[in-house]
Amino acid sequence: MICGTSGIGKSKLSQEFARSVNDDDGSTFLSGRFDKLESQPLHAISSAFDKYCAWVTMEDQSTAEKVSTALKANMGEEIACLATAIPNLANILGDDFNSTQSSKNDDTAVDAQKRLRYLFCQFVDVISRCHEEPLILFLDDCQWIDKASIALLNQILMMS
Fold this sequence. Notes:
Elements: H1 10-24, E1 28-33, H2 43-59, H3 61-75, H4 79-85, H5 89-93, H6 109-130, E2 135-140, H7 147-159
Parallel strand pairs: 1-2
């Protein structure tokens, strides 16, 4: 965790770290930013994974194919729910993916949140196994983090 007062250069430090990591050891650096005005829960995390999906389909087709196969095998039709939160996921899944596939729709709000957290964790597990090098998730402006993102990050950390 990078801590400090506003304007001290925390974001710049993380950008330099990302550049160094990507150049030196091939790790994949994912980043998202929490926003005071953003009302959509999980926005920063969804955004980071959406950028990942866009990147992997453009830059690393073999990994995109591994991820696609593993996601379909592990998540089945449930992946359609996750694709609503991560739009570029459809690019990884390919032409045979139907984002309107039926998925359980009769969940209560609490059950739907738990299910989405579970699906995000499955996604993180799959993409982590499909990369030989580490994946690094950087989230900026955490003072604006929402409760759903805290719960998801806790669940991801618990599965590690």
